Fold this protein.
Amino acid sequence: MSGAAQGVARMLSDGPVKASQAYEGNSGDIAEGRELARAFLADVQSVHGFPVSERAMGMVQLVVSELLTNACKYAPGPCMLDLELAEGRVAVSVWDSVPVLPVARAADPGRIGQHGLEIVMAVCHSFEVHREVVGKRTTATVMLADDPGGDIAGRRS
């Protein structure tokens, strides 16, 4: 079991269904964040019995990837990823040390890159950004069972 998966299992058994990980702000942190999200959702499903659709599994990992990419790219330095299960949703929250709020750009099919925030806002149930005493926190929520008729992640018929 990876370090991220061990951290998830420990946190889930100690109380609320949450996982957190601090990162240095390196590009490798993005893959580690996706692995933390995957392990978290696997435990949400296997340990706690909450169904997680294939689509939700992919969307949570996509949101983690995009939010951590923005933190690493535009707010160099430490950042924190928090995942929390509440009311059939997973809240993905990324804190970074820069107080400048992100702004989604106008749609432009000719633009290369910088579509991450647009993508996150399109696939999430909710999206919000708040300044904190130091930096900001960006939170997006993804419904776990939002794939009517689709396979539950990890369970094949």
